[in-house]
Specification:
By secondary structure, the chain is α/β, with parallel strands linked by helices. The chain has a single domain, classed as UDP N-Acetylglucosamine Acyltransferase, domain 1. It has one helix and 20 strands. The protein has an eight-stranded mixed beta sheet with strand order 2-5-8-11-14-17-19-20. A six-stranded parallel beta sheet has the order 1-4-7-10-13-16, with no helix packed on it. The longest helix has 31 residues. The radius of gyration is 20 Å and the shape is globular. The termini are far apart.
């Protein structure tokens, strides 16, 4: 009998939790656009609560219709953590273009990470413009006391980053490119290609893509994106 009662109450409890989560997200979104350093063209759609950390003098710039999804429920993959937006040096900029969707991923800027319009960033992606420490292979005992330098990251419009991708400092990804799940992007990628691997390389150009696609690109159609 108790089991039947709990089974009957469970859908109601889920509806209550969903409504409370949606209300909390709307309230947080309204507060987010008023934070010092935030420049928003409109109120973003939040699902769950993102982690936003801005050092004084840093900027978070959000376009219209941006979605920041930190809720694992309802998402088609396991999301390991909420969206994290971290700009932790004065003058640092994170810019996310109109209608871009970010799902449970980290974007960290020392200097500049710019993401274009209508981009899809799947869960558990890491995008950062600095490594946190200097390499110092000749003096590794000093490495722990360094902060590292920064090289800006530029991601063009309509890019799709599959789950678990890592985008390294100094990288430019061209418009419309798709990067397969689990790839490490350590060098520039041209527009309108399918790329993947560690390090990511061009696997297939799109029909009618601009010239300059590296030779050897394959027509592999079975690459997972996520």
């Amino acid at each position: 009998m108790l089991g039947s009662l709990l089974a009957a109450l469970l859908p109601h409890a889920r509806r209550v939790e969903s409504r409370w989560s949606a209300l909390r997200s709307r309230l947080y979104a309204s507060a987010l656009v008023r934070l010092p350093g935030v420049e928003a063209a409109g109120t973003p759609e939040l699902r769950g609560i993102p982690l936003v950390e801005l050092t004084p003098g840093a900027t978070l710039r959000l376009g219209r219709g941006v979605t920041l999804n930190s809720r694992d429920r309802g998402y088609h993959l396991s999301m390991y953590a909420p969206v994290k937006l971290l700009a932790d040096r004065p003058g640092a900029l994170i810019e996310i273009g109109d209608e871009t969707r970010v799902h449970g991923s980290c974007i960290h800027a020392y200097e500049r990470v710019r993401i274009g319009r209508r981009c899809l960033i799947a869960a558990n992606v890491q995008i950062f413009d600095g490594s946190g420490h200097d390499l110092l292979l000749d003096a590794p005992e000093r490495r722990i006391h360094t902060g590292g330098d920064a090289r800006p990251v530029e991601i063009g419009d309509d890019v799709w980053l599959g789950t678990g991708c890592i985008v390294m400092p100094g990288v430019t990804i061209g418009r419309g490119t798709v990067v397969a799940a689990g790839s490490v992007v350590s060098r520039d990628l041209p527009p309108q290609v399918l790329a993947g691997g560690m390090p990511a390389r061009v696997l297939r150009p799109a029909p009618g893509a601009p010239p300059g696609v590296p030779p050897g690109a394959s027509a592999d159609a079975g690459v997972p994106v996520g």
